[in-house]
Amino acid sequence: MQIWVDADACPVAMREMIVRAAHRTQIQATFVANQFIRLPPSPYASARQVEKGFDVADNQIVADAVAGDLVITQDIPLADEVIEKGVTVINTRGELLTKENIRARLNIRDFMETMRSSGVHTGGPAPLGPQQKQAFANQLDKWLVKAQRYHAAQAKSSD
């Protein structure tokens, strides 16, 4: 079990939070982006730079993530693809994306894209506030606790 981060749009504050959590729990976090990403030093955090291009980072995450992993992304189509593989997905606002809610998110995304392409100014997401940062930290901690229990059970069964 490891963490995959769609790092191109991941806020610096969240990157730092993820690295600290990965280091604390000794769970690998890989940040995938098509540009250089600066990370705090940790043997449990790495940056993987991929070629520039549409969905190159997303495709790399889809290829590498496996059931039980965690993907952190704002990208709804990426979330949909990895959820189908049994991957847990949270966005940087702390929302858990699941099989039950991803279709509605895709519909909203498509509607907003249609509005923008027709010339309607829809604005972007609101800036991250303390509540969203706390919600993200809570969701990340929930997954980390689950991952640590899994690793402890695996270690116990191999004894």
From TrEMBL:
Superkingdom: Bacteria
InterPro entries to which the protein is assigned, alphabetical: UPF0178 (IPR003791)
Annotated family: Belongs to the UPF0178 family.
NCBIfam families, alphabetized: PRK00124.1
Name of this chain's protein: UPF0178 protein BZJ21_08765
Protein source organism: Salinivibrio costicola subsp. alcaliphilus
